[in-house]
UniProtKB/TrEMBL annotation:
<feature type="domain" description="ABC transporter">
    <location>
        <begin position="10"/>
        <end position="242"/>
    </location>
</feature>
<keyword id="KW-0029">Amino-acid transport</keyword>
<protein>
    <submittedName>
        <fullName>LIV-I protein F</fullName>
    </submittedName>
</protein>
<dbReference type="InterPro" id="IPR052156">
    <property type="entry name" value="BCAA_Transport_ATP-bd_LivF"/>
</dbReference>
<dbReference type="InterPro" id="IPR003593">
    <property type="entry name" value="AAA+_ATPase"/>
</dbReference>
<dbReference type="InterPro" id="IPR003439">
    <property type="entry name" value="ABC_transporter-like_ATP-bd"/>
</dbReference>
<comment type="similarity">
    <text>Belongs to the ABC transporter superfamily.</text>
</comment>
<dbReference type="GO" id="GO:0015658">
    <property type="term" value="F:branched-chain amino acid transmembrane transporter activity"/>
</dbReference>
<keyword id="KW-0813">Transport</keyword>
<dbReference type="GO" id="GO:0005524">
    <property type="term" value="F:ATP binding"/>
</dbReference>
<dbReference type="InterPro" id="IPR027417">
    <property type="entry name" value="P-loop_NTPase"/>
</dbReference>
<keyword id="KW-0547">Nucleotide-binding</keyword>
<dbReference type="InterPro" id="IPR017871">
    <property type="entry name" value="ABC_transporter-like_CS"/>
</dbReference>
<keyword id="KW-0067">ATP-binding</keyword>
<dbReference type="Pfam" id="PF00005">
    <property type="entry name" value="ABC_tran"/>
</dbReference>
<dbReference type="GO" id="GO:0015807">
    <property type="term" value="P:L-amino acid transport"/>
</dbReference>
<dbReference type="GO" id="GO:0016887">
    <property type="term" value="F:ATP hydrolysis activity"/>
</dbReference>
Amino acid sequence: MTMANNDTPLLAANRLDAGYGRIPILFGVNFAVRAGEAVGILGHNGMGKTTLLRTLMGYLPATSGAVTFSGADVTRDTPTKRARAGMGYVPQGREIFPNLSVRENLVMGCLLAERPEEETIADILTIFPRLKAYLDRPGGALSGGEQQLLALARCLCQDPRILLLDEPTEGIQPSIIEEIIETLHDIRTKRGLTILLVEQNLNFISSLSDRILILQKGTIVREVTPDAARNSETVDEFVGMN
Ligand SMILES: Nc1ncnc2c1ncn2[C@@H]1O[C@H](COP(=O)(O)OP(=O)(O)OP(=O)(O)O)[C@@H](O)[C@H]1O
């Protein structure tokens, strides 16, 4: 068994390859996230961002290489086992349950939680006060931004050690994007949460990340500072996004 020590990254991809059928998408992806860090992954459409998060979570099998979490090789573990180990995932498109109420969505998030459900939900609502007024509303009746807050809140109910976020700003109005940034900062400060975020929104990724990795054609090609990524002209040189 591998033991974690202070130098062990919380999450690492080691020469990770994955794809769909015979189509390879990720090629030797290598990176490590230390506990407490917020790391962004920037890349434009189709570069493999979602594929990478799905492979890290185990929804897509790695064809070669390894994923480690807290020093343990989780490459062959199911998504549920990875979630139980402390990996939280908010997929692209949010995937809340539209026909269940906000409260019921949060209850679903508590299935893997160790604390009593009521206590967990009360605690989560202090971080997401906006959701309090909507507890009995169907999740599908919320705006896109509110659904994103609900998806985040639901994921946090399981008390993860790392949060993997797939393009949380997609299709969301700017005022709520600011609220999501503030909420995630708050959670990082209060809970010491580690974050791995894939995004195309330069303001969002720069505001939240300690460092940013550039993903191009399924490979991490370089690392840049948040300040460098804030400038769309520089980003154009890295990834040709603008
Ligand atoms: N289920 C699938 N079957 C086959 N190919 C897929 C599948 N899902 C994604 N792909 C292909 O894999 C490549 C990477 O897609 P992926 O969704 O990981 O990119 P992305 O960087 O997240 O893009 P976006 O920002 O558009 O979500 C694309 O060429 C895409 O067409």
